[in-house]
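Objective 1.3, modelling of assemblies. Example input:
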Amino acid sequence: QKNVGILAMEIYFPPTCVQQEALEAHDGASKGKYTIGLGQDCMAFCTESEDVISMSLTAVTSLFEKYGIDPTQIGRLEVGSETVIDKSKSIKTFLMQIFEKYGNTDIEGVDSTNACYGGTAALFNCVNWVESSSWDGRYGLVVCTDSAVYAEGPARPTGGAAAIAMLIGPNAPIAFESKYRGSHMSHVYDFYKPNLASEYPVVDGKLSQTCYLMALDACYKHFSNRYEKLEGKPFSMSDADYFVFHSPYNKLVQKSFARLYFNDFLRNASSVEEVAKEKLAPFSSLSCDESYQSRDLEKASQQVAKNLYDAKVQPTTLLPKQVGNMYTASLYAAFASLVHNKHSTLDGNRVVMFSYGSGLTSTMFSFRLHSGEHPFSLSNIAAVMNIPAKLKSRHEFSPEKFVETLKLMEHRYGGKDFVTAKDRSLLSPGTYYLIEVDKLYRRFYAKK
Ligand code: ACO
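Predicted structure (tokens):
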């Protein structure tokens, strides 16, 4: 099969959000800590009416409607999520409600879980299936869905929530360059969810930042080596038009791109300008460990990479800054932001993607973009996602009301025998919502 990849995308995020500026004041943090320090503008969260299942039901049905896809055309469905609602029953099985109505139960695939990486694992599974001898000619479907919530404290402003659905098949406008790939996997305790009674992770924030950057370095090295082996010339940042990162918060994305720049400098890649070489020279003798701790290096590399960041990364940052960390959906929401901002000029472009999931698992891979043909064109994907309208129709909650909502959700997590509030006026028509969880923990959803 040629040009296997993403044919169509739809994104859904809750209409309820809190402004980071208001939250930082409420939390007693210094002014600018969340907005400039973390680089975040706003954060979406689920109220009691929504969860990872309802969000993915909404994203999948909307994708089918807007691209004219019949549920019988799907042969594989893979879900990536780290939000645990049931330790056995997959989110995929909830989504089967959509397909059973059309008599289609012949659909492979289940859920993939490892922190924010599950969506990428799901995507690779689907692409591999289409490229394999067991492919039956139907589409694959990937769903990334998460609700990221943290206990009170410094990590709380790095939450978020969303679901993304992606249709997979050959001749895609967003085609995998499957040959170029680099992974780094390792055993660390940077972010994990050992407390099964709580939705909140245990997180070592500083360690998670360093693990992320170490994984980025390792993946970039493997990716570049693979590229050089196949192309006979070294890879540098000038060989890609855009870089898309898993985005826990924007500051880490700024640091990550600067880190790639430093990597190019160390490998003496041609893309690094002379002035930058001078500025980075003092840091070339640092050991690898020292380089993660050096504030001066961080500052210098961010400064020399600034123009390239504006050109190659900034267009990918809209949704992650506005919605927050969407865990498995975060990387793909960043990519969706690029399609939204640049759809008319992306033909022939290469986009490098970096996926990171704590614990840890990480891969760098690349897409080659084509304008595509309706309905599977980049411009139609941008039109369908209609990101401006979704952002505009949101409802801001006060920080007090946000905290109150999270308290209720703590109480509800793992609970049974409750119904949700009848007032669903904040949800747009077509949105799925949770009606009740009965005495046997069975969950019931409806569509507004
Ligand atoms: N104005 C401007 N900037 C400020 C201000 C201010 N008033 N106050 C602080 N800052 C800056 C800090 O200098 C720092 O920036 P820097 O790193 O460039 O120096 C930044 O704001 C954050 O402040 P810190 O005090 O360093 O960090 P904090 O203890 O508040 O925690 C953290 C931040 C670790 C990211 C926390 O939110 C967290 O644990 N989040 C979850 C873990 C996470 O997302 N890890 C990323 C990879 S793993 C994953 O995806 C889950």
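DSSP finds 15 helices and 19 strands in the chain.
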